[in-house]
Amino acid sequence: MASYLVKVRKKMDIHSMRRVRNVLTGNYGSVFKGRSMDFDDLREYNYGDDIKDIDWKATARSRSVMIRRYIAIRKHNLLIVAENGNSMASLAPSGETKGEVATFCAGVLAYVAQRHSDLIGMVYGNKGGNSRYAMKEDTAYLENFLSSYAHSISVDNQDSDINSLLTYVAKGYRERLFIIVITDPDNAETIDSEIIRKLNARHEQMYIMIEDSPMTNELLFDKDVFDNESKVRLPQYYRKNKKLAKAEKDYREAQKERIRKALRHFHIASTFVDSTDHAIPAIVKMLEEQKHARRK
Predict the structure, then answer these.
(1) What is the pLDDT of residues 237-280, one digit of tens each?
(2) CATH 3.40.50.410 fits 4-29+76-295, yes or no
(3) pTM beyond 0.70, yes or no
């Protein structure tokens, strides 16, 4: 069985360089923003402290700026929620399947969480049903659910149903979670805002959208290409049309902006990934955005 976590480590070592390693060594968002709800003590404010920690009553009494300190939470619950409908068997812009890119993104998240000794679980599914993996941090267990997810993706699967998948998560988990949803732009646009609102009331959320290959992708000019839904072959002259290429690009850019705007409304960080090569910097950027999402 291929090791998905080893693939992640190899790409990090080769492609990510210092910027990624700095972020992955401990500075990523948590459900409790790096602290628990358990108060520890007070101390004087130092440059660089978060102003949200200032205790104004204690400051007024002591005439020095005082901040509250909390007992740190050492483990968090990270839940990867991914679609495995037939659309995930389609191609990404890199020529890889969207399922391959999605699995790699899930592996990056599992790798990061495991390095922090956090607990990681996964839920994936489509209209045919959902599969659920409990929260653990064991490497063999993580490899198992990554492999199961990768092999579950097929053109013969039923369509994705992102709203049912998120509703399943909302009803099935009572503990506070750090939820990262892996979907694609077309399905992301169909998410019911009420479901996002319900999840936000209890959990932290982030969204990764795996991009679709454009019909006019130059990497595919010498290959037969079929529409995933209709199974109809797309003719070469159609795929080499420059006006169509521009129209499709403009549509996709506008779609991305609509999705970003909708998620920003709920203070949710998101990113779009077009290949395994670009997955790590995109996820790092999303994690950085999430650290500041509630302050905007």
Answers:
(1) 666 778 887 888 999 999 999 999 999 999 999 999 999 999 99
(2) yes
(3) yes
